[in-house]
Amino acid sequence: MPRAGSADRFLLSAFQAWMFNAWLCERMRRQLFETVLAGDVAKRLDNGALFDVVDASAENARMARREITYTGPMFGARMRRSSGLPAELERAVLAAFGLDESAFARARLSGTRRAARIFVDDLEISEHPRGVRLRFSLPKGAYATTLLREVMKTETPPDADGTED
Fold it and tell me: Tens digit of pLDDT per residue, the chain (165 long)?
């Protein structure tokens, strides 16, 4: 089997991100966005260390203090797995795409976990002649377009001319 070129790698990476987004949408649909669950793989925000959630009550208190967040799957063959209800949710997303975990080994995708919630602590808002200007920084893997959609509360991004579809 030939090695994947950079265009193939880019497409596979985009597919992983799409699946992560599907997983996050499902978690939100189930009203689990604000909750750390037993079985989640969580991330310490001070040093990035991952750990398995055992005591959800204690970890929810830490999440409220912005010390941790739960993580979501960037599916791959060596991705750290969740357990319990979080694992069921991940398997449901895989099934919705008609995949199982073996597909990622064949595609040579190692996988990882991505923070499911981000906090924008350095947001600056200022007046601008055509509206407002936002300045902020985001961690690796977060998208400014997603943050802007949340700020503007729109479902679709504006066209290049600044109008909505």
Answer: 345 577 888 888 889 989 999 999 999 999 999 999 999 999 999 999 999 999 999 999 999 999 999 999 999 989 999 999 999 999 999 999 999 878 887 777 889 999 999 888 789 999 999 988 999 998 877 888 888 888 888 665 555 444 544
DSSP states of 49-85 as a string? -EEE-S-HHHHHHHHHTTSEEEEEEE--TTPPP--HH
Helix (H, G, I), strand (E, B) or coil at 134: strand
Q: Which of 58, 54, 27 is nearest to 41 (CA)?
A: 54
Give the pTM. Answer: 0.80
Going from N- to C-terminal start, the domains of the chain cover 6-115, 118-165
In this structure, CATH architecture of domain 6-115: 2-Layer Sandwich (3.30)
